[in-house]
Amino acid sequence: MVIASKVKARSDSEKLKHLKSSSKDVAESTAQVIATCRTVSNACENEDNADFSSLSVHESKKKEMEIQIEVLTLETQLERQRKNLFSLRKLQYANNESNA
Asked: Which site among 5, 17, 56, 68 is 20 to 30 Å from 84 CA-CA?
């Protein structure tokens, strides 16, 4: 859009200057979002490789329970999505049979 506007607009246009400035701001903001996502992603990867050897017995049990809860939550979500996939495929099959 910016390139098309540069081609069509006068070079001294105030609106074009504003558009260029806005485009630059969007690019900078996008770069910041990407950098933040990478930082968070790296932090999550480091957390996944946590060293449990320094945990006390209580902390170890607590962490074990948290991980079990997370596993059960993910398994429940996975089962729900499998059911959705099954329903979708069943509907697609029924539609293909009726169109044939």
From this structure: 68
How far is the C-alpha of 73 from the C-alpha of 70, rounded, in Å? 5
- The length of the chain is 100
Q: What's the pTM?
A: 0.45
20's CB contacts (< 8 A; 6+ apart) are: 2, 6
Residues 63 and 52 sit within 8 Å (Cβ to Cβ)? yes
In this structure, are residues 2 and 20 in contact, taking their beta carbons and an 8 Å threshold?
yes
Condensed to tens digits (0 to 9), the pLDDT of residues 39-89 reads: 888 877 766 666 778 889 999 899 899 999 999 999 999 999 999 999 999
Distance separating alpha carbons of residues 23 and 1, to the nearest angstrom: 10
CA dihedral sign of residues 22, 24, 27, 31: negative
